[in-house]
Amino acid sequence: MNYDVVVIGSGPGGYVAAIRCAQLGFKTALIEKYPSLGGTCLNVGCIPSKALLDSSEHYHNAKTGFEAHGVYMKDLTADLNKMVARKAQVVLENTKGIEFLMKKNKIDVHYGVGSFKDKNTVTVKATDGQTTELSAPKIIIATGSKPTVPASLNYDKKRVITSTEALQIKDIPARMCIIGGGVIGLELGSVFARLGTEIEVVEFADSIIPTMDVDCTKELTRSLKKLRMKFHLKHKVTAVHASESSVEVQVENTVKGETFSVHADYCLVAIGRRPYTDQLALENAGLTTDERGRIPVNHHLETAVPGIYAIGDVIEGPMLAHKAEEDGVFVAETIAGQKPHLNYNLVPGVVYTWPEVAAVGQTEAQLKAAGMAYKTGKFPYKALGRARASMDVDGMVKILADATTDEILGIHIVGARAADMIMEGVTLMEFRASAEDAARICHPHPTYTEAIKEAALAATANRSIHS
Length: 467
Description:
The chain is an alpha/beta fold.
């Protein structure tokens, strides 16, 4: 079967690349190894985790905050089984939506494992063993990533689990140990902590979300401790032992050398993800991976083999669904001879805890390491009228700007609706706005976004009005 473009993988990067290719007039095929489209994000990642985060947040608010609003609850209970069922329905509706988009754009979907026969041919092996060969001058690898789980952690998918299995737990655990204080561990830890699970997080670094700005880590740590989440920073896991009904995690303090054990119902491994190129037979196409399993690409996202491109989690850069989508559009338009734009410095990052954390651009640590002269403006949520009205007073907005030109170099937000607010920061930075530009924009009152204006004012000769 001959196509103009073959896309391997139907996650956000793959299906978006396929749609854009079809829009540009290319005869396009999409390969997916699982029965449903959407990849990790739609099936066992972004979408289902956000569904559970929302459900658990509703319960937590009803339990802890409704009385202050004059709303009284009687015999309040949390049914995790029902939450998981709602999550499954959300996933189903989204994956069906992707199927509709494939039909709408006349994209042929081939279900099965795709592997290279040569640089222009991909063999698709279906679950029943039947094979189909797809040929195209342009092939896009979009196979995403999988959780990183060292063999020493004894991953059994029952008591020692990853995010995939955590999304299927039907009964609220009494205790859970989480290895890794990054985005995935904290989001899922929040889900269960709100429902009453005792959470202990073991993190090797000296802070949670260690890649984000230090002020964000401090703010989020304070908030999560209010959920009774416990953090063991500068600690490492030396062994994990699971039984039929529980797990023991042996932990060592990397500074003092002291050791102890954490006993829990589950151990969630959330130490990162690795590029997923298994079964692709890259060698048949003349491709290799680097020391981290990534496929090297040039500035056009083309591999060492002309005509073969790679996007999303299988290449260098942040492993984020929206980054993969932009990669997919970029490659499709590059194939069409257009001149698309990508700026990885302005790919926003979000942690969907509550309060949310969102950031774009450089952190203060990065600016210091680069020897750049900068100025800082911060504004606390507790000084916002809108935040006080909604009782969401945890958090802050931090703006970093060039000390000489005043150009905004980074925006970091912890607080209610930070995930939506960060797009103001992305827009400002995409157009290379100064802190003064942001400070002079009229923001509606009362809103959370006023914190961005106030932080910009603070960065402009310390002119914040309300703090």
